């Protein structure tokens, strides 16, 4: 121990790549910004009487995940003692204590502490996305309990399965290895999920669909207008998400190199194309492009390129983004056809966009994609990992949602839903009406 290592958990003699370390710390900070950005995005899409509750739900995720990730989240996701390739031993590296002394450097020359910093922000944003499907009708206490259980039983295992060497990775014992064999311990055809198509967007989107069905619709859904109360707030949230997404995607290169630069360019290209696609859909359908549409289109493109940012060229990214913008805009309308209350379009944007991006890799990957002469093997494994992610997330979420429904209950009272969840759950209002006293002050 010394003045720069007061708790004795850092190897002061280790050689770290300061450039890669700096890049990853910046990337982690950018991804951390995305959860407050979601609060703005979702808050603006909510009605005025529920904006604070929606923002509280996302900030609540930050509070909870920041506490439990160093306790057992990292260990379950990236620990060395894998249990069936589904999750790692939560007690092996509990609290991170004694974990990173000695050779505490990963393959990119970045301290493992920085890897923890980066990964905890992914756990936060993934869980926060689900909140958009539950707007205006659930107890804040039920949501917090759900966050603790869901991130433990759904997110941490999915991160291990895909990124931690589990059954959805390309390592020994994985589905890909069983199907295609291995060379030097790596599947001959490995799944591609560069930054979280399965772990983040399919996982959260499927959870959002299941939990919206379990909890039920808001009074008046599909019968009366429930329009966003503050579209400038929505656009600001979308802009900050766009900015933070460069940490999300380019940061997933884990060093400041050409791959990070390519991911940055592909991310921008896909988002722009998706914005165009969404506006085209609106122009055809209603005759007028909207601010909500272009903001949602940006997010749809960012979602779709997330798993593919390191595998596509800019032309492929443009095609992917355009498809995502068109299809996600159409998918959002399905909640009215099938009458499920996905309040803020999590299913249409994140679930559908995540599937599009994950599967499209099988067509558009420059090395192994079907359109580039790679055959159908990559497409097959991409479909399989998407399907398995849907199944696991759906089953785990359903069990958690039903247990909470029949124990503490999800819904606030019907009267509180009508008068507004901000007052009912938090005794606050985002927009106080002026009183006689305030006018005289």
Automatic annotation (TrEMBL):
Record-annotated Ammonium transporter AmtB-like domain positions: 22-431
Pfam hit, one: Ammonium_transp
Localization, UniProt: Cell membrane; Membrane
Principal subcellular localisation of the protein: membrane
Entry's transmembrane regions: 20-42, 54-72, 110-131, 143-163, 194-216, 228-248, 260-280, 292-309, 315-334, 346-365, 377-404
Record's keyword terms, sorted: Ammonia transport, Membrane, Transmembrane, Transmembrane helix, Transport
InterPro entries listed in its UniProt record: Ammonium/urea_transptr, Ammonium_transpt, Ammonium_transpt_CS, NH4_transpt_AmtB-like_dom
GO cellular component: plasma membrane
Membrane topology classification: Multi-pass membrane protein
An MF annotation (GO) of this entry: ammonium channel activity
The UniProt record lists the keyword Transmembrane helix: yes
Presence of the UniProt keyword Magnesium in the record: no
Similarity section: Belongs to the ammonia transporter channel (TC 1.A.11.2) family.
Entries under NCBIfam families matching the protein: amt
Name of this chain's protein: Ammonium transporter
Organism of derivation: Scrofimicrobium canadense
């Amino acid at each position: 121990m010394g003045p720069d290592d007061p708790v004795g958990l850092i190897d002061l003699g280790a050689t770290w790549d300061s450039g890669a370390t700096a890049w990853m710390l910046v990337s982690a900070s950018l991804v951390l910004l995305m959860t407050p950005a979601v609060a703005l995005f979702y808050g603006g899409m909510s009605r005025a009487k529920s904006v604070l509750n929606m923002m509280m739900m996302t900030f609540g995720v930050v509070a909870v995940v920041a506490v439990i990730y160093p306790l057992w989240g990292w260990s379950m996701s990236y620990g060395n003692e894998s249990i069936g390739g589904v999750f790692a031993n939560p007690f092996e590296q509990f609290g991170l204590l004694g974990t990173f002394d000695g050779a505490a450097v990963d393959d990119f020359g970045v301290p493992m502490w920085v890897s923890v910093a980066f990964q905890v922000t992914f756990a936060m944003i993934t869980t926060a996305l689900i909140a958009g499907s539950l707007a205006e009708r659930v107890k804040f206490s039920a949501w917090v309990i759900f966050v603790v259980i869901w991130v433990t039983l759904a997110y941490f295992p999915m991160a291990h399965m895909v990124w931690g060497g589990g059954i959805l990775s390309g390592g020994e014992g994985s589905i890909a290895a069983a199907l295609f064999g291995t060379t030097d311990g790596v599947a001959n055809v490995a799944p591609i999920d560069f930054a979280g198509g399965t772990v983040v967007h399919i996982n959260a989107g499927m959870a959002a669909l299941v939990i919206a069905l379990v909890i039920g619709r808001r009074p008046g859904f599909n019968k009366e207008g429930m329009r966003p109360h503050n579209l400038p707030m929505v656009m600001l949230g979308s802009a900050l998400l766009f900015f933070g997404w460069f940490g999300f995607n380019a940061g997933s290169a884990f060093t400041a190199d050409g791959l990070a630069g390519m991911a940055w360019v592909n991310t921008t290209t896909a988002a722009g194309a998706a914005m165009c696609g969404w506006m085209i859909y609106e122009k055809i359908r209603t005759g007028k492009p909207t601010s909500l549409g272009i903001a949602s289109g940006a997010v749809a493109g960012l979602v779709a390129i997330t798993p593919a940012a390191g595998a596509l060229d800019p032309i492929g990214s443009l095609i992917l983004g355009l498809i995502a913008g068109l299809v996600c805009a159409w998918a959002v309308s399905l909640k009215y056809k099938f009458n499920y209350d996905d309040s803020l379009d999590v299913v249409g944007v994140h679930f559908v966009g995540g599937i599009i991006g994950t599967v499209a890799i099988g067509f558009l990957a420059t090395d192994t994609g079907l359109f580039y002469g790679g055959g159908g093997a990559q497409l097959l494994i991409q479909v399989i990992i998407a399907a398995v992610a849907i199944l696991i997330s759906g089953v785990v979420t359903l069990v958690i949602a039903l247990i909470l429904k029949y124990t503490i209950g999800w819904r606030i009272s019907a009267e509180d839903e009508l008068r507004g969840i901000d007052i009912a759950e938090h005794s606050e209002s985002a927009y106080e009406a002026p009183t006689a006293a305030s006018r005289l002050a």
